Amino acid sequence: MVERALYIHLPWCARKCPYCDFNSHSFANVFPEEQYVQALCRDLEFEAEHFPDTQISSIFFGGGTPSLFQAQSIGHLLNVIFQRFSIANNIEITLEANPGSSEQQKFLGFKEAGINRLSIGVQSLHDAQLKALGRIHSAREAELAIRAALGCHFDSVNIDLMFALPEQSVEEAATDLEKMLSYDPPHLSYYQLTLEPNTLFYKMPPTLPSEDLSWQMQCQAQDKLRQKGWIQYEVSAYATTNHQCAHNLNYWQYGDYLALGAGAHGKVTQQSNILRYMKAKHPATYMRQAGTPECRQQSHSVARIDRPFEFMLNRLRLLQPFDPEEFCRRTCLPMDVIQSPLKQALEQDMLEYQGRSLSVTPIGRKFLNDLVALFLPHN
Fold this sequence. Notes:
Arc Repressor Mutant, subunit A, 3-stranded antiparallel sheet
């Protein structure tokens, strides 16, 4: 059996956030939950037939806002998955949730359905900043949601918190983080607001802190979390002991994952071939085509020349060093293919050897995009 993660995309939101570039769709009153769950089950059967050698190592319900779905729907999907696939022991099953009061009331139901890790999109604990981000929950609702999630005793709870928000000061970012840490969650995703193409913020950019101020915010957070004993294991991910996100670790380690849902992406390695695919993006098209070959609207083998960049784009986000065997195993390539960019990275003090393993230096961490770009095919 081959270990692979499973990503399930639930694409609806009560309202589209102006910074969000994910495949999400606002709905007026109701959305076709039952019809979509049936489509996911057909899609699941299609995946199981094509990759029967799979053992599912983690499951992640992302969106959109998965917590808009009923716990019974999530439980039904998990039952079908467990019947159709081999399942790893102690599997991590994550569901993304919003802090709204209606979602809070479902938390215990999600746990009873089989969810053992909840990820809450708080983003800020200040009402003015939440309003600037277009969020529909209040700081009070966010705090209640954190308490409710921790009170349900999931195996783990993640809190999403953003910094470098419109007109945010370094002091305000520090206050936000302090308030978040007062609840003592086991995992924190702390990431910078960026202006992504095809978003409202990209078309009508708000006033954001300068790069220097943003870097200050990030560094002060790293120092604060380190002092409190947190482990930073990825650029934007911090955890207490044994609470790293297994599903995201698989992404960053260039692992394999199956995909269910509208616009969901998958990656599967078979022998020396690496296949990437995407499901039909629009929910209506997806529901119509789920379970058929037509639902895979994009499918291609990753060219050998592109694999080093793809590997580094993901793997260099992790703070843990990697050894040559990991690169060769994940890319199905010899180390010889990256000798030139690797030499440049070492000479520019962006990478360094620790024994036989390669590690990103502080300079490389600060200029990570430049480091990754060294491994583009044209280099």
